[in-house]
Amino acid sequence: MGRLNVNIDHIATIRQARRTNEPNPVSAAVICELAGADGITTHLRSDRRHIQDYDLIALKQVVITHLNVEMAATDEMVEIAIGVKPDVVTLVPERPQEITTEGGLDVLSNKKAIKSAIKGLNSAGIFVSLFIDPDIEQIKAAEKLGAYQVEICTASYAQLNEHPGDATVRKTKAIEKELARIRASARSATKSGLKVAAGHGLTYRNVGAVARISEIEEFNIGHNIIARAALVGLDRAVREMIEAIRIAQAK
Ligand code: PXP
């Protein structure tokens, strides 16, 4: 069975909305592990909009499964990763104003920076995964640069699945075509000796078809799990606050 790494960034997004100390991403990581997650994924963004440097240090101390840190291939980030020593670093592209990662790395056009980041991280004993679009040329380039794993970007597949209500023949064909690209890329990566992960935009509704691709060994999923947690946890949270008020007023 494929491994699930839960991306806990949006726990930190909620905390950062108030610049306070809760909810704590480390507590979230522990809950994910207790629920059976195989690993924790987190993205240290250059603008520090959610996860902070101190979160990485704390996560490294507390996570007992597997810690995957996503980051841009910059000298600043590589230095931080070498200090923290997560199990894996996933190199991702980053554009300053983006809402979330917009597609995979262009490995072919950024060979020098990626090669240097892989070299530095590997010398500190950190495996490197490259987040790439389902594109055979990018996979070949990732293999040549010595990546350990590729994470295939499922964002386009996820976008096509966003409005299931307006399923048309054209849309269904487009989804099939995107799945075929992901499948072919996963096969090609496995043949090249690379480990294969997938992620971005995966949901309870769309994960099935991707999970059926046997070459994909790992899934990195965040937003949809945290979104669901907020809703399935809300009922209990409201009841607990009503109870806290009731107890105080009964005294
Ligand atoms: N994989 C990578 C490389 C990402 O950048 C992200 C988002 O941080 C994810 C997986 C998780 O995506 P989502 O939050 O849409 O599940």
In the CATH scheme, the class would be: Alpha Beta
Structural class of the secondary structure composition?
alpha/beta
Shape assignment: globular
Stretches where pLDDT is under 50 for at least 5 consecutive residues are none
Largest sheet: 8 strands, parallel, barrel
Element order: H for helix, E for strand: EHHEHEHEHEHEHHEHEH
CATH homologous superfamily?
Answer: Aldolase class I
For the biggest β-sheet, the strand order reads 1-2-3-4-5-6-7-8
Question: What's the tally of helices?
Answer: 10
Outline the structure in words.
This protein is of the alpha/beta class. It has a single domain, classed as Alpha-Beta Barrel (TIM Barrel). It has an 8-stranded parallel barrel, surrounded by 7 helices. Helix 3 links the parallel strand 2 and strand 3. It is globular, with a radius of gyration of 19 Å. The structure holds pyridoxine-5'-phosphate.
In summary, what is this structure?
This protein has 251 residues and is an alpha/beta fold.
Features:
alpha/beta; 8-stranded parallel barrel; 10 helices; globular; binds pyridoxine-5'-phosphate
Topology of this protein?
Blueprint: E1 3-7, H1 9-18, H2 25-34, E2 39-43, H3 53-62, E3 67-71, H4 75-84, E4 88-91, H5 111-123, E5 127-132, H6 136-144, E6 149-153, H7 155-160, H8 169-191, E7 195-199, H9 207-211, E8 218-221, H10 223-250
Parallel strand pairs: 1-2, 1-8, 2-3, 3-4, 4-5, 5-6, 6-7, 7-8
This protein binds pyridoxine-5'-phosphate.
